[in-house]
Amino acid sequence: MKRIILFLSFILLLAACGSAEESSEAQSNSQDLTITTGAQGGSWYPIGGALAELMNKNMDGITFSSVPGGGTSNPQSVATGKADIGFSYNSTLVSAQDGTDPYDEKLDGLKAVAKVYDMAWHVITPSDSGITSFEDIAENQMGVKWAPNKKGTGDEWITNKVIEEYGFNYDDIESWNGKMNFVSISDGLSLWRDAHVNLYSAHTLPPQSSFIEATMSVESNFLSISDEVLQSLNEKYGLIEATIPAGTYEGQEEDVKTVTMPMTIFAHEDVSEDVIYNFTKLLDEETEYLATVHQVFNNFDIEKAGKDTGIELHPGARKYYEEIEVIE
């Protein structure tokens, strides 16, 4: 009887150890991955949430979450392990990889997943503000009140670079009794509607809902960038000339000359090939659904997604593009 009891105890012990090992293995195989997107009120935030939801439905053992971020801060978040996948721009990713402005050092481990769409930097001012150009601001030392989105966003980075080309900066605006309001796109819209700012800008895909509302609530003019400054911005920072066609917004009777940086999704090289392969596949197979989340996906082309991304493709993304024969 003692031998039987000892034998049964041994069997139970083995079963318990096996169960613990299986539990430990399952725990080690589970992952929490973060997608860092854009400010609330912008186009990136809902897209990130939709992609996290799709990945949670289609990949076992991994939990995806989406958090707010910014075009220039996201590469640093991914490089330092605060996030795993991010939204940024191709030229910003090149700067991050090379350690050039706005970065003080090289950010390692960043790999491209997909180029999603081109955007356009919007800048509006009330028609009665007396501001007709960026030259006006510099030459007349106008104390403008500006909402350019939060610091660390691509929107704010472009603002900084454009005004530098026109010969002034944030400190100058403050010294002229103006104010830079580094708030989100949605908070900037509130300031605009309440007449607390007379310049409102963002780098986004036209037509964008905040600017539709802004131009409908206040009679507005768009500011264009001169050809000379456009050329300089391209040579220095790789910013590409873009046009907001006439009639895109209420009261906009002429084309607006501006700049763009293509929006690119990227990931850390340590994120597994399998995860990024499935992520890229979902971008392709769920394009129609993603277009219901945000219209930017009406312009998504999988045949172009793996090209001109600025930095090297993640192996998982490359595997999918090669599989569907859109890259060699």
UniProtKB/TrEMBL annotation:
InterPro entries xref list: TRAP_TAXI
Pfam families in UniProt: NMT1_3
Keywords: Signal
Keyword Signal included in the entry's annotation: yes
Signal sequence annotation: 1-20
Record flagged with keyword Signal: yes
Name of the protein described by the UniProt record: TAXI family TRAP transporter solute-binding subunit
Species per Swiss-Prot/TrEMBL record: Oceanobacillus longus
Taxonomic lineage from the root: Bacteria, Bacillati, Bacillota, Bacilli, Bacillales
